[in-house]
Design brief:
- The protein is of the alpha/beta class.
- It contains seven helices and six strands, in the order H-H-H-H-E-E-E-H-E-H-E-H-E.
- The strands form two sheets. It has a four-stranded parallel beta sheet, with helices on both faces. A two-stranded antiparallel sheet has the order 1-2.
- The longest helix has 26 residues.
- The protein starts with 48 loop residues before the first helix and ends in a 6-residue tail after the last strand.
Length: 239
Amino acid sequence: MERPSVSKVLPSPRTESTSTYVAVADAPDMYGSTSVVPPPLPDVTKQDTHADVVALRAGFATGATKDLKTRKTLLRALQRMLNENEAQINEAVWKDLHKHPLELFNAEVALVKGDIQDFIDYVDDWAKPKLKLTNVVNLPGLSYVRPEPLGVTCIIGTWNYPMNLVLTPLVAALGAGNCALVRLPGDDTTRHLNNVFIELFDKYMDKRYVRCVYGGVEETKAMLRERFDLIFATGGNFL
């Protein structure tokens, strides 16, 4: 019996790669920018969170937000803010997180817009008193559950879903007739978007009912020393 032959494959000579790795932060983005230096925010020392809360409480005390027309006006203003500034928002989120506009729309913006439209369409029904069974002792009286706004709410935004986790609770707060103080995500995370939010909130939102603050840990601690009727926050211990 003949011994089978064994072929031997020799490794090809090693060649050095000529490609160069370019870090994402240094690569030109879809908007043609290579800058990774975040823009400065307005001077945080000029914020007066206590004055903001006092102003919101005064706005709530007028009873205006109990009016469904006022609620819809605020929601439509938020709706216009998103529709009229889509490109500016997309660019800011891309620069902060490199989140593609399609992902941003599907995972965040579409949900916010859907919530806004739901409140506009159905808040009249949701706000109606609901008839409940009356116990024997109180017959022939009638019993109702009447939805009422809580007052001044605090919304603590976070960086990973900055549109959704800032605006979705804001939609619910305004739709339910509350005023809201929005704490934008931390300065070291979404600074481009924070600047856009500050600009657009000032342009579209009525300051009697909606205000925003920004900053880091110390500014958040100062904000939480105020009294709120409801606080919305998501995430871990570090917000």
